[in-house]
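Running this now, will post back.
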Amino acid sequence: MASKRVNRFRGSRTHGCGSHKKRRGAGSRGGRGMTGAKAHRFVKFLKEKPGHIGKYGFTSHVTQNLKTINLCEMERLADRLGIKEIKLKELGYDKLLGKGALTKPLTVHTNLISSKAREKIEAAGGKAIVPEPKPEESGTVKEEIQPDE
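Update: finished.
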């Protein structure tokens, strides 16, 4: 039994598909799948798949997401906690930045600090304590070669 669609096209040579020569294969549809995304179907792809065509930056695998704090915020934090020696790592901060002014001497322990922040802390009479970076250790043991006696 023929479907309604086929019945509708009885007597038509091409059944609504253009030239009968183009019916086979990808024919008059201009290719299959993603064919023509940058050519004859460009506007269609821009509308239906925005962001599919073009370059949109890159993902850096080296970036660090550091939680930072400025001097002015740190001073307010020290006032609120009532302390004169601050360990920023314990409070959840990675780096100290130099925005704002420091009015009283504070001792700050931090892993990373900007040069302006260090200058302002020392100008106010405080100290910035940053641990020395550890040298990179390789997995191999280096032996000293002793000369033959």
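Residues 71-81 form the longest helix (11 residues). More later if anyone needs it.
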